[in-house]
Model the fold of this input.
Amino acid sequence: MNKIKEILEYVDNHQLYPDLRIIQGGAEPEVMIDGKKVLMFSSNNYLGLATHPKTVNAAVEATKNYGTGSDGSRMLSGNLQVHRDFELAIAKFKGGQDAIVWPTGYSANVGVISAVMNPPAIGAKDFFNKKSLILSDELNHASIIDGCRLSGQDIVVYKHCDVQDLERKLRKFIRRRKLVVTDSVFSMDGDIAPLNKMAPLCKKYNALLMIDEAHSTGMLGDSGHGATEYFGLKAVDDIDIILGTCSKALASSGGFVVGSSDLIRYLRISSRSYIFSTAMTPAASASLIAALEVIEKEPWIREKMWQNVELMRNGFNKVGFNTCGSQTQIIPILIGTDENAIIFSRKLFKKGVFGPCVRWPAVPHGKSRIRFTVMATHTKEQIDYLIKSCREIGRELKII
Ligand SMILES: Cc1ncc(COP(=O)(O)O)c(C=O)c1O
Done:
């Protein structure tokens, strides 16, 4: 315990312990935090569906029908009709042959990568007797990184969204069994992976391609189906493994994979985080089915969302902030040092805006930032107030 004490002392002495403020109430643009009414600019509830009457009603009805929990793993007593209904709905939404769901996006990433890249031995040893290889973007989400590590296979990191670097590395390891894995929208920068270039490259070098659609599901593409729709790519034909989380625009919790029927059948018997963990709640599955329906039937919500994205990004760029190449609803402003990012976030809170800072290890050293997100439910006045407040603090701290 001495080591733990030592670390805590260091963190406290350098004022590095995260603020972890308590939020009272629902995921609305205005929330009560630590007893104070503030504007929320950090929610993943991008489309405002966490409080949409249809998703809320679906969750309530499912709880009445099934109870509060799912009572077990999908392999045992937790394989509910409502879970299968959501799997079929998300498979259709993403254009794949079938789907499988996990209780969280984190457990999906961890469970899929290790299952696919470290399959059980069933006969003769691998011909080359070499480990498989995972090529991972340097800014991939922590759950992808942990999935790669858990697989026990070799990991090669390629430069962020750099297709030339990826090709160099694919060529170098031409004889190995390979998986290329990337976020489709990056969670800390809000930029989009060049999947239109990556998909043909993976075909050329015989590598599997897996994308994490956590922040693009419900957002990208004409109908919100994700990065595949945005680039005109197809599940199974162009992208082998489409993973996503249910905790962002879909406004609940859970993780999913959409792909070929064989892939899904295989994952059900090989993914340890699927087999050895209790299934998501019935309320979550039911609200997710409703969320997909709302996205299909109420396109105006997504239109409003994209108007807000433009308004906020242009506003920040105009006053001189670096928005890290964001192309989406995740709009960070680069601050630099940990210390300044912490001060910035605290000053912002005093002005009535919640925008937490993000520091290493979530982002590289020296690239601390305030990570803002926009919601379809924000008003122009709220976005204008955010920009004005950031401009004042940015000038005071000499960041702009
Ligand atoms: C890109 C990405 N993948 C996976 C996850 C994990 O999803 P969950 O929060 O559902 O566990 C996140 C969550 O922040 C994410 O941003």
Summary: The radius of gyration is 22 Å.
